[in-house]
Amino acid sequence: MDLDSPVTQLAGIGPSRAKQLQGLGIETLYDLIAYFPRTYEDRTHVVPIHQLETEQPACFRAWVIREPRTSHIRKGLSLTKLTVADNTGRLNLTYFNQPYVAEQLHYGEEYFFYGTVVGDFAGYQMQNPTYESVAKPGVATRRIMPIYALTAGISNKLLSRCIQQALDACFQDLPELLPASVRSRHDLCRAQEAYVSIHAPESFEALDRARKRLVFEEFFIFSAGLQLMRNRRRVQHTAPYDMLDLTDFYAALPFQLTGAQRRAIQEITADLQRGVPMNRLLQGDVGSGKTMVAAAACYLAAQNRRQAAFMAPTEILAEQHFQSLSPLLEQFGITAALLTGSLPQSKKRRVKAGLADGSVQLVLGTHALLTADVHFQDLNLVIADEQHRFGVAQRAALSEKGRCPHLLVMSATPIPRTLALMVYGDLDVSVLDELPPGRQTIDTFLVGESMRPRINAFIRKHAEAGNQVYVVCPAVEESDLDSLKSAEVWAETLQRTVFPDLRVGLLHGKLKGADKDRVMAAFASHELDILVATTVIEVGVDVPNATLMVIENADRFGLSQLHQLRGRVGRGKDKSYCVLFTSNKNPETLARLKALCGTNDGFQIAEQDLALRGPGDFFGSRQHGLPQFKAASLTLDMTVLKEAQEEAEAVLSDPDFIHDPVFPALQKRIQALFSKEMNIFN
Questions:
Q1: How many helices and strands, by DSSP H and E, does the chain display?
Q2: How does DSSP classify residue 440?
Q3: How far is Cα of residue 158 from the mean position of the Cα atoms in its chain?
Q4: Which of 37, 141, 265, 332 could bridge to 112 as Cys pair (CB 3.0-4.6 Å)?
Q5: pLDDT number for residue 677
Q6: Model confidence pTM above 0.90
Q7: Which pLDDT value is given to residue 308?
Q8: Number of neighbouring beta carbons within 10 Å of residue 479
Q9: Which residues fall within 8 angstroms of residue 16, CB to CB, at 6 or more apart?
Q10: How many Cα atoms within 13 Å fall on the side-chain side of residue 575?
Q11: How many Cα neighbours within 13 Å face the side chain of 501?
């Protein structure tokens, strides 16, 4: 067996068990070995019975002094009871629905137990403790016990046994991915020692040493992959732009750009004249003016007789960009067109013909731009808006329609610098950290259910003043999540009971794309007063008339997501508000939500969100580009990250590294990490 062998090669794992393991992301023996514990229990300290404390799990050694007896209380419930003792005291043990205990624990014999004492008026006892004979080596007691994240049908004991089988079968095949010089400089143990100790540590010192090695290895692999992507970009060439004067463009704008916008445009201009494809992330808070920066890039592409494609995640957002950019650029003789799935076939044919013969210099669209029948005469600039809605592969698919085109990806999700370094390590980053003059600050309030009548009156006040209201719910249907507001039920309640005289709409992710666009268009044109929605509106169309955002069960959202939702209002001239409903009394939760009420700075909020929830939850999905680190933590291991990045850059800059014994295995692991997105070795 080797690391790529399926788990069914192991004894005791058939198709049904393999399917259960698949639910944990485990399909191969390597997946098993690399499924690290989420925490550990210290079961090494054995205490006498009289030192056991309630609610504190502990390990103790005792004799069985009363024969185990099983009684059947009712159908489906049996109790097995016995008494154990040592030289300091005695303790009653109870096992629920485990009648086999009576066959395994014998009167007069000595065992190690691990469990938690509970006490009540009837005295102290322990329920369902783990046990092992003193004559056998410690597997569940007398050791540092790994605790794994589990799924239905998979117990901690079963998973531990499977992992040990995989380690035994593949120990000699565990690849060494770090060069000897790197291990020496950072005092890192070998891979075999690390994988054994992470699952079965002999001491906490050995565990720390194993984790240090595996954290470094994860960061090194990822950093090496990003470095290879950067290296590949550097060897690509594209004709530099020579027409870079933006004087006329600036003069045509009906407003002054912020300093941050001008700085970002200067960085893009510098990229366009280097002769190497631009690969830049334009990051800015909601309303910071990213679209105008993109417009400047499109203007420069057209002035240099090149074509640009601007891809948005929804049809309505693509249409919004088209309506704002087309009149501006047409002043300079630049022809812009819209290409979306819902356009009539005749219009689609005209746009595609214009792209093919070069008469259309800028196309704004959705995934429709990716279809095989879309051809460009000279696509040289690709812009992806709300880039976290597109995977790397989708951006690459559009880029492949040109010859080494420049790439500008835009994100309205403020990302902490540390996280941006990981997610966008192959991109240069421009940040818009100023808001244009006149952009509204949004007053945010945290309220409980007792404020419901007043908030309903506040909603009515906004609607009667001619403004519009968003109401966001965490669930779509009533059955989705107990005790949470569901969009479907709440929309019906508001329409029938609370606001029967107002126009209430419903929008959620389970609607078809065309239906979503239809509802959003109705809200944008003020055919609706209230839009009840899920987070599908997190990225949406501009509705300057919307002045109130009400978020139900706000504690179920991350701070950055709440900030994104809040950014749907405050886009017009009228004062805007955000109301966060929660019934959660947890002090930490309330402190987190109050932090949002205290600032409108998305970057400050993002830093707090990363610290509170960690990077995995920050985005919530692999498609955003964040790897699923198994041992490393961006919040705890930033020093190691920097060291690993420096080593990866140094190692890959050495042309002799391809002869290092670790190179083939490292190359394979890097490719596996990035394979879902793109082949970084081609």
A1: 22, 22
A2: P
A3: 29
A4: 141
A5: 46
A6: no
A7: 96
A8: 9
A9: none
A10: 5
A11: 4
Q: Under a CB-based contact definition with an 8 Å cutoff, are residues 368 and 319 in contact?
A: no
Helix, strand and coil content of the chain, in percent to the nearest 5, comes to 45, 20, 40
Residue 459 confidence (pLDDT) = 97
CB 530 within 8 A of CB 505: yes
Strand partners, 64: 84
Contact by Cβ (8 Å): 635, 615: yes
Q: How far apart are CA 566 and CA 554, in angstroms?
A: 11
Q: Which of 35, 37, 105, 31 is nearest to 66 (CA)?
A: 105
In the 8-state DSSP scheme, what is residue 44? -
Domains of the chain, start order: 45-142 (2.40.50.140), 247-274+289-411 (3.40.50.300), 442-599 (3.40.50.300)
Amino acid at residue number 584: N
Closest by CA position to 537, among listed 499, 498, 511, 575: 511
**Alpha carbons 365 and 384: distance in angstroms, whole number:** 10
Both tokens of 637, joined, read 């291991």
Indicate the residue type of 598. G
State the greatest distance between any 2 C-alpha atoms of the chain, in Å, as a whole number: 96
Sheet with 428-432: strands ordered across: 336-339, 362-365, 307-311, 379-384, 406-411, 279-284, 428-432
Going from the C-alpha of 235 to that of each of 523, 545, 635, the distances in angstroms are 48, 49, 34
Pairing between β-strand 428-432 and β-strand 279-284 as defined by DSSP bridges? parallel
- Rounded (10°) angle between helices 602-619 and 559-566: 120
What ranges make up the beta strands (E) of 552-612? 576-581
- Helix (H) / strand (E) element for 452: namely helix 452-464
Alpha helices, DSSP H, located in 26-155: 29-33, 101-104
Across the strands, what pairs with 280? Answer: 408, 428
- CA 331 remoteness from chain centre: 42
By DSSP bridging, strand 58-74 and strand 406-411 are unpaired
Nearest CA-CA partner of 570 in 438, 409, 477, 440: 440
Q: H or E element: which one contains 589?
A: helix 587-597
Round to whole Å and give the CA distance between 402 and 399: 6
Q: What is the pLDDT of residue 616?
A: 45
Contacts of 646 (CB under 8 A, 6+ apart): none
* Closest CA relative to residue 425, chosen from 221, 202, 198, 595: 221
- At residue 279, the pLDDT reads 86
What the block records as the tokens of 406 is 């420049």
User: CA 436, CA 439: separation in Å to the nearest integer?
Assistant: 6
Place of tokens 């989708």: 394
Judged on CB neighbours under 10 Å (0-12, 13-18, 19+), 657 is middle
Query: What is the three-class DSSP state of 532?
Result: strand
C-alpha span between 523 and 580 (Å, rounded): 22
Yes or no: say if 32 and 7 are a contact pair by the CB < 8 Å rule: yes
- Quick one: tokens of 593? 């939500």
Tokens encoding 562: 């709440």
Q: How far apart are CA 645 and CA 648, in angstroms?
A: 5
Amino acid at 326: S
**For every residue of 196-257, which 3-state class applies, written as one string?**
HHHHCCCCHHHHHHHHHHHHHHHHHHHHHHHHHHHHHHHCCCCCCCCCCCCHHHHHHCCCCC
Q: DSSP of 160-175, one letter per residue?
A: HHHHHHHHHHHGGG--
